[in-house]
Design brief:
mainly alpha, elongated, Ribosomal_protein_uL29, Ribosomal_uL29_CS, Ribosomal_uL29
Length: about 60
Amino acid sequence: MKASELRSKDVAALEKEVSDLLKAHFGLRMQKATQQLTNNSQLGKTRRDIARAKTILAEKKRAAK
């Protein structure tokens, strides 16, 4: 997901996005543990998306104060 897409969302939507990404990352980790994951690069992409979403969420919360 691009940062510009995340910046257009409000705080509640960003928090939901982070939650969804964390669930997706957990699912990928479980697939890797059971050797069902074929594309290991998905783990890194998901981790970077989580960091990107959390960063923008923190910026929005800081700007609201």
